[in-house]
Specification:
By secondary structure, the chain is α+β, with helices and mostly antiparallel strands. Helices cover 36% and strands 28% of the residues. The chain has a domain of 232 residues: Nucleotidyltransferase, domain 5 (2-Layer Sandwich), CATH 3.30.420.10. The N terminus and C terminus are likely disordered.
Length: 718
């Protein structure tokens, strides 16, 4: 059973699930020396390790215990006095293809102590770091964190750890944040090792505890969850060579790829060192940063529209990165008190401008859409605002921080009585560095040309994710609250801004410039709004990189002309970068060109209805319903409305989608040690002792009211 090959293998993938003692007996038979990755700081076991738990949720009141569904079906008053409870009833641990399971977390702690002690002896008396992947670590960590002493917990948000390392060198990592997909989808991503995520074989509605018997089907369900994780991590190790090469998040892959491409160029290194921030500038950049524009035309809200077409940009953000201009110098602060109107116009025309402005008495020129988001304004300065589903229609005073691209849209969208610039920075304009643009083009070309090519599934999947992640790499926040974990979650600490910015400026590994991300979204919103303006009253809905509209035959010319302008910009960019002129328009396996940044047909609907941002229903020509409602599962929500006699009539403000149909769960954290005699669904009683946890219960959703149509009608009549 010895295996001394240096490439990680999967010798135990078909053993099945065993007890912890059997697990240790098998592990002791192997020579693990070839699996150790040695370094100056710490040694790692270079193989896939995974962990998972199954937990049950229950609610108690006056000696009565009910399950999560029964709790959710009670009305608000009846639910009020029930105490939430939760406990784990089985855990699974996998290593190099071998899986064991136990029933209590105390058993798990004892097992890990034996396992880590074994590897310590294998590693000449030094603890060996075992990177243990958990899918959705935040959930499992809520249950087991009080059972271990942690040396370090790294978290981007409170209660959502990215990594958590114990004193015995178990380093728990989140495989969900690494992949961004469910376990079911993760199984589909594996191209070499295969284990399906079993769905429906474990009824989460049944109350269980560590004394509840589990049958063969239920245990197989539990086993496959950790097998899916191990399969994926094994493929990543074989691709990367070392487990230490696997990043913490999916954005880490593309960040590493781009860094290696860019930072091997001395000219790039010199350039990025010159691009620095100051604290005030950073604060303004944060205020100016906004994501995609998502909104609905108030005049078509709640209307059932027919013959609706959808168009979307082909990779909107990557296209902007290739073809648009960006800040390519450190900022110069402008003395706005001495700035003349002519100087201001020159800055807007020739520079990247970051500015805080005050608008006096603004009023939208258009009935069908409004650009300014109330959430992006200084609400202390906002006066007498009329707001349409989060967007400002008119106001006496608006103060906000914007770019020159934002100002261009705002001036076209609104009548403005007066405007004052209270603070301003300017940057030299230029294309993003060629090294970075080449990365973006390579990712997009690979995604396009390898789709459907036999034998290239893994490379296609990788480059597809790179295309989707390259924007995220550009907008990663550089100043976050410090999330403190010391035996438990502590209050977040505000960092010293000046210290963080100085560290950012001095960082030798940095290869991006934070303002680039601000201008990516600013350019993309501007491009989207050319479509909104062109569609006029036929425009119904937009979401970041897509528009939905009526009478498509009347608007074909706009899309044709827009794509022609994109082609001109792309060719100009290719010429400047000295890149092949066809690099931006790769060809699919079927010989079809897919130009980057073009408006592309995204489907048509027999009927379409929106109730506001992130709330719409579509029906295809076959009568199949689809919905997008923030807070409602797409599949479960569509099934709910499909059963209605008239889905479009049922889809309205005030409609309540019950817990059974909503597809979402309410999280209730349980803090502190709890004890109770719990009766499972079979009638077995077990004394449960649990240190912290989280109760999950189905939750319903009431479609909210985002309209002010009557008020708008009065405004436009006046």
């Amino acid at each position: 059973m010895k295996d001394n090959r240096k490439t990680p293998v999967y010798p135990l993938a078909n053993v099945g699930m065993v007890s912890p003692s059997e697990f240790m007996d098998i592990v002791r038979q192997y020579n693990w020396q070839s699996y150790i990755v040695r370094s100056e700081n710490e040694d790692h076991l270079n193989t896939a390790v995974a962990f998972d738990t199954e937990a049950t949720t229950f609610f108690t009141k006056d000696g009565e215990t009910i399950n999560a569904t029964e709790y959710s079906e009670k009305n608000g008053e009846e639910r009020r006095d029930y105490e939430p409870g939760a406990c784990t009833y089985v855990w699974m641990f996998g290593l190099c293809g071998l899986v064991c399971y136990g029933r209590t977390l105390e058993e798990f702690v004892a097992f890990t102590e034996e396992l880590t002690e074994f590897f310590r002896k294998e590693n000449d008396g030094c603890y060996l770091t075992l990177v243990v992947y958990v899918h959705n670590l935040a959930y499992d960590f809520a249950f087991f964190h009080k059972y271990f002493k942690f040396e370090k917990v790294f978290s981007l948000e409170r209660r959502k750890p990215l990594t958590a390392k114990t004193e015995r060198c178990l380093e728990f990592r989140c495989s969900y944040l690494l992949t961004g997909v469910s376990l079911e989808k993760l199984a589909e991503k594996c191209t070499k090792y295969h284990a399906s995520k079993m769905v429906g074989d474990l009824d989460y509605n049944q109350i269980r505890h560590p004394g509840t018997p589990l049958d063969t089907t239920e245990l197989k369900y539990c086993e496959n969850d950790v097998r899916v994780i191990m399969n994926y991590i094994t493929e990543q190790i074989e691709k990367e060579g070392k487990i230490t090469r696997i990043p913490l998040t999916k954005t880490g892959y593309v960040r590493r790829e781009c860094r290696e491409k860019c930072m091997t160029d001395p000219a790039y290194v010199r350039m990025i060192k010159r691009l620095k921030l100051d604290p005030k500038e950073y604060e303004m950049l944060k205020q100016a940063f906004a994501g995609g524009f998502t909104h609905a035309n108030p005049w078509h809200r709640e209307e059932v529209c027919e013959n609706v077409q959808s168009m979307d940009f082909t990779s909107s953000y990557p296209a902007v990165m290739v073809s648009e201009y960006f800040p390519m110098s450190s900022a110069r602060r402008i003395d706005v008190e001495d700035m003349t109107a002519q100087e201001f116009r020159t800055y807007l025309r020739t520079m990247c401008c970051l500015m805080t402005v005050e608008f006096d008495k603004i009023e939208s020129r258009f009935q069908f859409e409004h650009y300014i988001s109330k959430s992006r304004t200084d609400e202390k300065a906002l006066r007498n605002a009329i707001v349409d589903n989060g967007r400002i229609v008119e106001a006496e005073c608006v103060c906000m921080t914007i770019t020159e691209k934002d100002l261009e849209v705002i001036k076209y969208n609104y009548k403005i009585t007066g405007m004052r610039v209270t603070a301003m920075y300017v940057y030299k304009r230029g294309y993003l560095p060629t090294n970075l643009v080449q990365c973006v083009l390579r990712f997009y070309q690979g995604k396009t040309t390898l789709k459907g090519v036999k034998g290239q599934e893994e490379e296609y999947q990788l480059l597809k994710e790179y295309v989707n992640s390259v924007y995220g790499m550009m907008v990663t926040d550089i100043v976050r609250d410090d999330i403190i974990y010391a035996d438990d979650w502590q209050e977040n600490q505000k960092p010293d801004l000046a210290t963080k910015i100085e560290k950012y400026n001095r960082n030798k590994k940095r290869f991006t410039f934070y303002p680039w991300g601000v201008w990516i979204t600013s350019h993309a919103r501007f491009n989207l709004w050319t479509g909104i303006f062109a569609l006029g009253p036929d425009y119904i809905y937009s979401d970041t990189d897509s528009v939905k509209y009526m009478n498509p035959e009347n608007h074909a010319e706009y899309f044709k002309e827009y794509n022609k302008k994109v082609e001109e910009k792309m060719l100009e960019a290719m010429k400047w970068h000295q890149i092949d002129a066809k690099a931006w328009r790769p060809t699919t396996i079927k010989g079809e060109e897919k130009p980057l940044g073009f408006w592309d047909f995204d489907g048509s609907y027999a009927r379409f209805k929106t109730l506001g941002a992130k709330k719409y229903m579509v029906e295809d020509k076959a009568g199949k319903i689809g919905i997008t409602v923030a807070g409602v599962g797409k599949k479960s929500g569509a099934e709910f409305f499909q059963k209605c006699a008239d889905p479009f009539k049922a889809f309205e403000t005030g409609t309540v989608i019950g817990p059974k149909d909503c597809g979402k769960l309410l999280h209730q954290y349980i803090i502190g040690e709890t004890e109770t005699d719990l009766t499972d669904y079979l009638g077995n009683v077990y004394h449960v002792k649990q240190r912290d946890g989280v109760a999950l219960s189905p939750i319903g959703y009431e479609i909210g009211d985002g309209k002010i149509l009557d008020l708008l009608a009065q405004i436009w009549e006046d």
